[in-house]
Amino acid sequence: MTAVTAVTDHTSGQEPTEPTGTGASASCERSVADSGRDNSATRDGSSTTGDGTSTGPGPGTGPGPGTGTSTRSWARSATRAPTSDDSAAPAGGKRPRRSRAGRRASARDGAAEQGAAEKNAPETPNGSVDDRTTEPSTTKSRATKSRATKTGTTKSDATKTRTTETGATKKASDRRHARAENVGSDAAEGRSWDDGLIARRVGDPPDNTGHARVEPFDQHRHDAHRDGAPHSSAYDPELRARLDALRELVGLSRARLDGQTLAEAGRVLDQAAARRGLSDRHTVVAIAGATGSGKSTLFNALAGVAISDTGVRRPTTAAPIACSWTDGAAGLLDRLAIPGRLRRRPLQHSSQGPVLDGLVLVDLPDHDSAAVEHRQHVDRILTVVDAVIWVVDPEKYADAVLHERYLRPMAGHAEVSLVVLNQTDRLPGDAAHQVLDDLRRLLDEDGIALGEHGEPGATVLSLSALTGDGVGELREVLGQFVAERGAAARRISADLDAAAARLRPVYAAGRRVGLSERAREEFSDRLADAVGAAAAGQAAERAWRRNAGKACGTPWLRLWRWYEDQRFPLLRAKPSPTPPADEQATARQRVEQAARTVGDEAAAGLPAPWAQSVKDAAARGAQGLPEELDELALTAAYPARRPPRPGWWPLAVLAQASMTLLQIVGGVWLLGQVIGFFPPNLGSPVLLMIAGIVGGPGVEWACRMAARGPARRYGIEAERKLREAAAACGRAQVLDPVAAELLRYREVREQYVRVTGAVAAGPTVAMGSLGAAGSLRSAGSGGSAGGREADPHDRVTELSTTGR
Amino acid sequence: MVTLDVRPQLLDALSALRDRVASARFPLPLTGAPRARANRDELLAQLDDYLVPRLRQPEAPLLVVIGGSTGAGKSTLVNSLVGRQVSEAGVLRPTTRTPVLVCNPEDHHWFAGLRVLPELTRVWMPDHADQSARPERRSGRGERRPGAERGERVLRIETAATLPRGLALLDAPDIDSLVARNRELAAELMCAADIWVMVTTAARYADAVPWHLLRTAKEYDATLVSVLDRVPHQVLADVSRQYGALLTKAGLGEVPRFTIPELPESAGGGGLLPATAVAPLREWLTHRVQDPAAGAHAMSRTAAGLLTSLDSRMPELAGAVSAQYAAALRLTAAVDEAYEREHARVRGRLQAGGVLAGTALSRWRSYPLDCSAGELLDAIVESLAALLLCSVSAAGQRIDERWSREPAAAARELAERDADREGAEHRIGLEARRWSRVLEEYVEDEVRGQENPPDAEVVTALLVTALLGGRRARTAGEALAERIGAHGALKLRDRGGRLLTECVEKVLRAERHRRLAPLAALDIQPEPQAELIAALSVLKKER
């Protein structure tokens, strides 16, 4: 019970105004409310809800005093105004920076305050840390001093590490992706065994949010090469960039995707922000497992004192109990909603093993007993801790609940997971090894990377909490793990991977996206069809030729036609009357069909929400289009009612006239000879007449030949004019909006690629770099379990063909 | 005491009901469908593996199925009851993957045949001890197989003289390990049991999964025995008391409860527990066999419980069937509605002369000076086909939209629709051209008798224009009347109009049928629901 007292003292010493709840805490509350409002301005309701649940305990989750404390201290850690005013100069000096961040946040529209804080962080990677923790004021100055000395070295260390890390980080991210992708599919499968009936109908099916919420993890020594230097900045730039990308992605997609789809992403962002605002000197590790596996016994063994009740009664532990090795974890525990009476301290002078400074251990209830509320506790806390120790025992290590409901969905969190086979004392002889090997096999089948041979992944240990056999090794691993202080960031990173994997279906396209040139041309053709461009052109060409024929034809032919018309008036078609202005000259059905076709083609392969928006854009564009085309047909189709007359027509007419004249002259001459008026001379008049008779049609034929080219050109010109006008109209109304939608999608997808971390976040994403990252990735994933390699590779291929 | 009056009528009613259940299908992926399917399978398993054989042959041995969580010590328990190692025990989970049935050699014939669990292939391992004593072993279907081949479900049959006659023990796989096949098989084996023996342990007695199974047993009112295994002897009394309290709380207080302490033998190596540890259970089971009344009680309680459970399970199944039918109706209604709408729209467009637009209009404007009758006719027919195609694809889009909100439409058969826009275009174009050809024949008939007959193609073109051009083609009608006379023109227009309506209806109907074909292939009818309920009521009357 001394432990409890210590925690309480520490809390009150830190917040003297607590009992009265005046000025300071009131202003804190307000600022929390403000940040909440900022969030809701940029996020939709669902993510705000997520915010609420993650930042403070809901009513009734703890006893009154506990709840009050947690809310207040959260508020304090979020704003820190009251304490930092009183504190030493370095802390005070931070305030201007804070408010600058605030200004920037309000200046940039759309960025949540948390986002601004996040973005701002790079400026003060080392400095801001201590400030965030709710340090007792008595230790504050000491902490400040030590920070000052640390700052210089850490900075250079950090830069050095960053450069050497690049390769390793990439590899690690490959692995992450391979795993993250499994998460989705496994989560889907996970539900199938729970389908009811005798053995299968086990308890409540994990609901959607249920398995989504399960993601614990843990980490460890693979980055021992960071030479043990305390890593003071919680999130490295890559992770920050990915979080920023995710935030932007959520903003970009809100109009297209429903809140439910984005809720998970919003939750990850909230968790990231919330965790970031809390102490990064602490690592919160939960002990999870089935009932009777010995969680509490292990907890006590690690703490060195019997804190948690152990017993034979199943289920034993009903509520989570926390044990903090160092001070300043109040904010973290508030976030876990663990009431003050369940916060303990370990045996202070425990001399055994390495120091576990910074460790906050949480003993969870079981996840598999008939008590449903225990499972709810577990599910809730697993989403907010930094790492998890899974305790299994020889009897239950192959339980479906453990593997399908928890381990598989959190396969991506392997680096922040420890799996411990407890109760080895119950196994005879070398059976422990057999069981451990079998456990490793099962974990591997779950897709969990095992931390063997120095690779990152889950550590698997066997021990007996009862006899203490193997507990030392666990302490060692934990000590190293806690000293690295990377668990929180890795947890968030794994969360991010899981969220990205889950969002993949709504962002990744099955094929190359875009409107092909062929589709555009087909669309124009259809529109031209709708306004009848080809037929109009043909009609214009024929009209031109008809006119030419009329102008240059022999008069006899014209006379004959006229006579025919007179004789059979019925057959003479009247020219159609000029179309009235209100006529619907455009074929509506063709326009509609054209827009639908082009929309479908543009949307092919897109994820459903984006495909829908593309189709909608096309359909919207098609609505006013026929009317516009009607107008256009009136203006463009008949600009000049009469075809122009080329310059050679008079000449042709003259030639035709002279041929007719020749015929007449020859005829008259002959007639004159017949009646004896002219001397008989058959040759000349006959020649003249023949010349006229042959020449007339000859001229007409020549004219027709000559008219062909110009008529054709005239017709083509008329068609082209109409077609181009229609195409321009269609482009503006349909193609451009569709292309804009596609562009929006592409933008979102690039953002998504950035979220997955496939590419170093930069202002521009060059396709070349995508390809490069892809090859690296597929090379890196070669080591992971077979069958998974193909998938990341495919994805990269697809992504690298995205842009045009 | 529950007694069962087994009459042929009851058996008939039962097998009729069984057939109805077997023919119930749930092809649409509604939310309740997977559960209904599993329910159907389970019910079928209970009918086939237990109820029907049991009612036919009440004298058959009692089948005791030992079920429970992985690692609870089921195999060790069976071995100890039998007195020798018949089922392999071990520390690796899940241990038992092949169910093992142990019975007295005299009872072997009951299980060697396919009386119960017909879908499991029988396998047996020769037993060195009584090899010579068991000549009938070679009968039946049990050829020896070296282990269970992958994918094949087998049942290993062992005989042991130590078991009393009329008692058979079945060591089932676990109900909760991550080998899904085990869980399914265990559920199926449970269905065949006269007596359910639920084994749990000190570490597990609060687990959700076994409790679920216990509740199921209670629901079916099966004869149940509960064994609390592997209890460390220090806490034996404590744990046993708590478990008893939990059972009482769940309404299972009267269930016979046996506690077996954790002994070094139960941990590993597959050793047998001392006879004293399992003696109470053994005695209890033996008593069921030796006392005819007790045996009949255990047997008839399970059977009657199962029959009673039909009262609630059959309506559930029927409900799922009718939900399927309702969903199918909704899907059909969406299709019908979309096509109705499009049909109305097409009629409107036809009346407004929407066909005479675009290319067709250009042709009509330049006719007859710059355009031949044939070209005009082609353009108009093509325009008609475009109108029909447009409405068909609009209907398709509308249906897609409506179906996307229906979970039932996610069925694989419905989802993989061939995107045959070209196909539809081709079919519709064909239909439109056929219409114009028939019209041309009418015209030829009409003009044949006239002296000085006008060109049939010209008349057809004018007729088509007049039919499809609405107000804007008034002059076409006049020209038509001038050529073949007002009477003939009227007659032609009447016939042509009727033909047009038919053609449009035909096209839309054909396309709608194509759309509905996959759904129709699923053959979801309302009758099975009524049949299920009817079979149940017949059974009730016979009981």
TrEMBL record, chain B:
Looking at the record, the residues that make up the Dynamin N-terminal domain are 64-204
Q: Which InterPro entries match?
A: Dynamin_N (IPR045063), GTPase_Era-like (IPR005662), P-loop_NTPase (IPR027417)
Q: Which organism is it from?
A: Streptomyces solicavernae
By its UniProt entry, which Pfam families does this protein fall under?
A: Dynamin_N
**CDD domains in the record, alphabetically?**
Ras_like_GTPase
UniProt-annotated stretches for the region Disordered: 127-151
* Gene3D superfamilies assigned: P-loop containing nucleotide triphosphate hydrolases
Q: Which PANTHER family match?
A: GTPASE ERA, GTPASE ERA, MITOCHONDRIAL
Q: Output this protein's name.
A: Dynamin family protein
